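in:
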């Protein structure tokens, strides 16, 4: 096994989400494995500072993988070498991103248009680095070309150490339901011996227990369900161990974690980008607070840290008073 944990629960790599502050937060909440935002190899070999910064991590995040993507063979190999020099626990190759500007160039899931190239680049990376190499991919390009069972065998043949599969095609993007039946076929293929991790629509602890039993996967990746909800990892781990659900975090715990998360992201990304990146988290952090809609809108519009912290203070006052008027009457909306 690649990891010591019997059934690792991953924080799935997500651009503009899985930065170091969020990775460390999810680690504290029980995530077994974390992965960086994806790093464009063509930018790394040009020494682009923004991309190189994505290599940064600290020891508390281990086991950690650096995820790379690209479509140029030489750049992918050299980018993998540079990533390996940062001493992650593994290199993860992104052969799954469905975004048009990436897949359209033949990177991410666009590589399904040229599977021999996928295998060629993957094999070169395996040979070029001295850390384990994993791949994250999809079922195929579209409904007519769900080739993951064959592709998984061939990726194993060129030397990868584990495979993570998102249960959608590139054409689906993130719509429709994830199809776990093919993930199960890959895992239960008698030819396969590397760990197979499943991804797609993992939103509850009960769903994790279901896919573990039904499809026999070696672990799962939690993606969008973790945004503004880092508690999902401890909830999953507790449910798998006991069969019982943990109580939801209190409103005050959500507020305290969100406040610190914001400050950490600003320290990492700078004021403007940090505030922008945090907006995607607010709805989930505060979804269960009554009468929250006006302040959610105000948070999404706020561009100054003092304004956001003042909104947080109003939320705290409301939680203490249980008076809806105290949260609504001072809203600038």
């Amino acid at each position: 096994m690649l990891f010591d944990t019997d059934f690792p629960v991953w924080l799935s790599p997500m651009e503009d989400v899985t930065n170091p502050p969020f990775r460390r937060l999810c680690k504290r909440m029980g995530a077994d494995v974390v992965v960086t935002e994806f790093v464009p190899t063509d930018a790394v070999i040009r020494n682009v500072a923004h991309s190189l910064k994505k290599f940064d991590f600290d020891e508390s995040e281990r086991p950690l993988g650096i995820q790379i993507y690209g479509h140029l063979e030489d750049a992918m190999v050299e980018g993998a070498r540079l990533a390996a020099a940062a001493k992650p626990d593994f290199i993860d190759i992104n052969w799954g991103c469905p975004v048009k500007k990436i897949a359209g160039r033949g990177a991410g899931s666009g590589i399904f248009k040229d599977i021999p190239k996928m295998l060629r680049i993957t094999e070169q990376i395996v040979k070029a680095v001295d850390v384990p190499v994993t791949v994250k991919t999809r079922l195929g390009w579209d409904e007519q070309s769900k080739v993951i069972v064959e592709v998984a065998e061939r990726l194993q043949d060129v030397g990868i150490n584990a495979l993570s599969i998102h249960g959608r095609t590139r054409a689906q993007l993130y719509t429709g339901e994830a199809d776990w039946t093919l993930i199960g076929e890959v895992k239960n293929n008698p030819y396969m011996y590397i760990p197979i991790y499943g991804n797609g629509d993992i939103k509850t602890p009960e769903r994790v227990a279901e896919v573990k039993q039904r499809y026999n996967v070696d672990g799962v990746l939690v993606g969008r369900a973790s945004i503004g909800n880092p508690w999902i990892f401890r909830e999953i781990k507790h449910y798998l161990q006991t069969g019982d659900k943990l109580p939801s975090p209190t409103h005050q715990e959500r507020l305290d974690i969100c406040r610190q998360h914001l400050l950490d992201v600003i320290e990492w990304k700078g004021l403007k980008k940090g505030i922008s990146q945090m907006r995607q988290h607010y709805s989930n952090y505060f979804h269960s607070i009554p009468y929250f809609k006006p302040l959610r809108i105000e948070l999404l519009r706020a561009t100054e840290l003092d304004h956001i912290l003042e909104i947080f203070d109003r939320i705290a006052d409301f939680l203490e008073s249980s008076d809806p008027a105290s949260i609504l009457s001072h809203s600038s909306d």
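note: The first helix runs from residue 20 to 28.
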